[in-house]
UniProtKB/TrEMBL annotation:
<feature type="repeat" description="PPR">
    <location>
        <begin position="336"/>
        <end position="370"/>
    </location>
</feature>
<keyword id="KW-0677">Repeat</keyword>
<dbReference type="Pfam" id="PF01535">
    <property type="entry name" value="PPR"/>
</dbReference>
<feature type="repeat" description="PPR">
    <location>
        <begin position="124"/>
        <end position="158"/>
    </location>
</feature>
<dbReference type="InterPro" id="IPR002885">
    <property type="entry name" value="PPR_rpt"/>
</dbReference>
<feature type="region of interest" description="Disordered">
    <location>
        <begin position="1"/>
        <end position="41"/>
    </location>
</feature>
<feature type="repeat" description="PPR">
    <location>
        <begin position="227"/>
        <end position="262"/>
    </location>
</feature>
<feature type="compositionally biased region" description="Basic and acidic residues">
    <location>
        <begin position="1"/>
        <end position="13"/>
    </location>
</feature>
<dbReference type="Pfam" id="PF13041">
    <property type="entry name" value="PPR_2"/>
</dbReference>
<protein>
    <recommendedName>
        <fullName>Pentatricopeptide repeat-containing protein</fullName>
    </recommendedName>
</protein>
<feature type="repeat" description="PPR">
    <location>
        <begin position="371"/>
        <end position="405"/>
    </location>
</feature>
<dbReference type="InterPro" id="IPR011990">
    <property type="entry name" value="TPR-like_helical_dom_sf"/>
</dbReference>
<feature type="repeat" description="PPR">
    <location>
        <begin position="264"/>
        <end position="299"/>
    </location>
</feature>
<comment type="similarity">
    <text>Belongs to the PPR family. P subfamily.</text>
</comment>
Amino acid sequence: MRKDRKRSQREDSSSSTTIIDRNHHKKHHHNNSSLPIPIPPTGKPSSSAFVSYLEIPNLNPKLKLLCEIIANTPSLSVEKVLDDTGIRVSQEDVEEVLKLSYGSPGPAVKFFRWSGIQLRDRHSPYAWNLVVDLLGKNKLFDAMWDAIKSMRKEGLLSLATFASVFSSYVGADRVDEAIMTFEVMDQYGCRRDTVALNSLISAICREGKTVKAREFLRLARELVRLDADTYAILLEGWENEGDAASARQTFAQMMSDIGWDPKNVPAYDSFLTTLVKAPDGMVEVLRFLETMKDRGCHPGVKFFKVALEECVRTGDGRSAKLLWETMIRINGLRPDTQMYNSVIALHGYLNDSDLALGLLDEMVFNGAFPDSQSYSILLRFLIKKKRVREASPVFAEMVKNEFVPDHEICSSAVKMYMDHGDTYMAIKVWKFMIENYKSDLEETGNTLVMGLREINRVPEAVKYAEDMIDRGIKLKSSTLSLLKQSLSKVGKGFLYDELLRKWKTR
């Protein structure tokens, strides 16, 4: 089967022209240029590099059968096998099958031809675009251009078609050919405008080739106007590559060309995100934020999220506070739960429990709701710092909201409460533990029993010792020995004898 698939791919590189041009297509009055074309992983094409019908749960049986035929039938036999099924297809069926057949380009194109006969050569523009993308992603560029020429005859070409070609060439490390494609777009009836330029630049930057994008823009700017999106794409490329020096140069050029623009949030996001990850970048970022505020501009949530995580990583509470204050003053920007968790963790690390607790209370007013991590971060900090009074309502609220504190938090809480004489909360947490955990309860259970005995609450100590034995939780012999001493002192040795009998039976 695998050999057939490889052979059919070789056959297709020479036969796709015939397959496509033999059809006589009817014109459509729309281009569907906004429809997305799936872009599979780039690099050396193989059937495993693309999304397969086998990965789609509950796929329509008809579509599944068509995909199976394409995946498992040599290219030369596909049309006969399809004829034998007696299946009828719609435009939508063809689109769905093509999206799942990138790993078998030869048979997929034969399926496209076969289905065209049923549809009286009325394939949708989207299906045509998928064929172009499928061939390009498999590096069958001659066949891809034959398909494009057929689309041009019928007026079906759109920017989506050329966006696919840009992506395929760049993914194959043929950036120069992607650029040449842009340069001949107008010969195919597609405008070589700013939107098309941005599509090309995006494809180049997406593959980590932002230097080449910048080099091309130095020439292209004489022919096509660069806009805010052009710079935002380039800055995102530098962000992905971690190139702060180049990001500064591009930002300066953007300021020279288009100036400050409150709507250019994506560009500011990428630029500041790149800076904040650079050595000593936080100082530069805070300076830029002040300049931006004076000009009515600001980055988006994306930047603040990354910046706050950087503050947590470096323990920089001062910068975190400045960033937080800047963010909450920006209309329309609201921190999410993850961001709250980051700053709660930071202030916990910096021993600022009042601020950490205040952030938990504030969350819901900004539309961010505490999750299990929010409570867990805060509880760990409060328990570590022995903040008994503050920990109790946080634990209660966490449980009320149906989140389960982890075993370590519960065990530490029981010990803390017993050490500080709060037996009510210690017992409450212990009961929660035995309801939610079935193992590793021995240490905490013995801690509770020993703590109750030490404060002369022996009957309760015996009660929880018996309950431990009944539940199969090991009661230590040292715990049992100390209970014996306490019971003997008050003349209740018989209770110890009963406890010992149960303990031995277990």
